[in-house]
Amino acid sequence: MVALSVLDLCFVTSQTPPRQALAHSIALAKYADQLGYQRYWLAEHHSLPSVASSVPEIMIGQIAAVTKSIRVGSGGVMLTNHAPLLVAERFKMLEALFPGRIDLGLGRAPGTDQVTAYALRRLLEERPGDDFLERLQELILWESREFPPNHPFNNVYAMPSDAPLPPIWLLGSSGYSAELSAMMGTGYAFAHHFSDYDGVSALMSYRQNFKPSGWRGDPYAIACVAAIIADSDQEADRLASSWDLNWLRRRRGELLPYPSPQEAMSYPYSAEERRRLEAHRERLFVGAPQTVKQRLEAFIAATKADEIMVTSPIFDHEARLHSYALLANAWGLKSAP
Predict the structure, then answer these.
(1) What is the mean pLDDT of the chain?
(2) CA 121/CA 30 separation, integer angstroms
(3) Under a CB-based contact definition with an 8 Å cutoff, are residues 54 and 44 in contact?
(4) For residues 25 and 31, what is the distance between their CA atoms, to the nearest angstrom?
(5) Are 49 and 114 in contact (CB under 8 A)?
(6) How confident is the model at residue 194 (pLDDT cuts 50, 70, 90)?
(7) Long-range CB contacts (< 8 A, 24+ apart) of 188-191?
(8) Distance from C-alpha of 133 to C-alpha of 138, rounded to nearest angstrom
(9) Fewer beta carbons within 10 angstroms: which end of the chain, N or C?
(10) What would the pLDDT profile of 10-68 be if each residue is shown by its tens digit?
């Protein structure tokens, strides 16, 4: 059985303000550690009323400090928002404090709208076009120290200099990041939970084109999925109604806190909206433990994923904890109840 991990967005709901959402994330991370999950990754999003996770590095340090064995990382740091030297320093610092337990996941998107992205970067050097690859190469150079002779950065060091960068993972929702991960020889995480791109194609492309590097000798692919598990298929379907309404609102540009099942089930959907929601539900893993386990096993067989990372967008905190416990139990994790 492949490993199970957690992707956390720190969900802000209509009844859970952002500060409480952050506290819930720390509680969930401690529980996931006890259950035997492999990793706990935190996202970077900005100016989203439904997501409190804006600075994953801070949450990584807080969570690593209160857990024992689970790896903690970013899913991911949006590299276009940050100077590569800052990313190197922050994650070398985390690695120095929690050696062998930190992951550095990197994304290309800004994690927000264009106005907020401008506010994040407006005092930085402006670089036209997609400069993700340039930033990634510079980040790696801070670790390898292979700047060209006489380059001014040869006299600058990412501190603490005696701590290595954690393992690098490239995140993606299309074929580009799969190809880049393979070329760079890094781990790869595919965002199946929100991407419309074919996950089988992305993960197979990564595996087939992988080139060993100083980061990894063999390919390793994580598939990030949205899964909602409850004691019955009916209860899981009720909990997933919140995700339905949230997804529909996001598609229409309506940015609101995560809705309750009661609000979602009373919403007056049109026939076309219901059709779109039904099609979208095919990408979710919703149901009782065995229902979800069987679907995940089929998904793993098709994608050849080495690991499944689960985000559980559930309105109620206790129901979210229960969802992860049910999946851990069905999966046979060593510490699951």
Answers:
(1) 93
(2) 34
(3) yes
(4) 10
(5) no
(6) confident
(7) 188/219, 188/220, 188/221, 188/222, 189/75, 189/76, 189/105, 189/221, 189/222, 189/223, 189/224, 189/309, 190/221, 190/222, 190/223, 190/224, 190/303, 190/305, 191/224
(8) 9
(9) C
(10) 999 999 999 999 999 999 999 999 999 999 999 999 888 999 999 999 999 999 999 99
Give the pair of three-digit tokens for residue 312.
């559980």
Residue 159 is given by DSSP the state S
Q: How far apart are CA 75 and CA 25, in angstroms?
A: 14
Nearest-angstrom CA–CA distance, 40 and 303:
22
Higher-confidence position of 117 and 261: 261
- What is the rounded distance in angstroms from the CA atom of residue 242 to the CA atom of residue 224? 19
Q: Is 304 exposed, middle or buried (0-12, 13-18, 19+ CB in 10 A)?
A: middle
* Residue among 290, 270, 273, 289 at smallest CA distance from 281: 273
Q: What is the pLDDT of residue 81?
A: 87
Q: Are 199 and 190 in contact (CB under 8 A)?
A: yes
Contact 80, 43 (CB under 8 A): no
Residue 103 in tokens: 């992951």
The H-or-E segment that residue 308 falls in is strand 307-311
Q: Which residues pair with 258 in a beta bridge?
A: 13
One-letter amino acid at 1 equals M
Angle between helices 56-66 and 18-35 (to 10 degrees): 50
